[in-house]
Design goal:
Helices cover about 75% and strands about 5% of the residues. It has a domain at about 5-30 and about 80-165. Strands 1-2 form a two-stranded antiparallel ribbon. The relative contact order is 0.12. It is built from 7 helices and 2 strands, in the order ββααααααα.
Amino acid sequence: MSLLLGRRLVLPRDWLEVVGLVMGGVLGWWLVWLDRVAYVLILHPEVQVSQYVRYHLGKRNYRAAWDLLERRGGELDKLTTRGFLFQAAWLVLALFAITSVASMFGKMVVMGLGLRVMVEEWLEYRSDRALLKQRLFWQMKREVSNQELKWYMYIGTVVFGWLTWLLV
């Protein structure tokens, strides 16, 4: 059993690679959500959002806890994945994964995580740059200018595009 796509014959074993690609991308996309869970349950249990989420989890009302995190996730200001230091470490991990990992699943987990971070940053860049600067550079002592933020976003996007190009 095979399928002809364009000029290439896709065999069932190739489908496993496609499934790995899709599943890795989805898993990477949702890994960022685990940062919110860690923030609420481990890193900052004193924050009001954390207390509400813990309350819902204590009542086994998981849907309400999920909805609360989705609705009030913007209040979580010092997420690990949103810091520029994490993104520098992600770049090293992405280079390693793309050049050394054999399966598309592993590569796509890393790239899916990077895509989610990049998309969220661009959405916030367009809506509230001051908040993005606060969330992205909270580990730095000095104030980052709008011009520096603009360059950071452009360079980050070009680097992500280059890494995606390396996948192909």
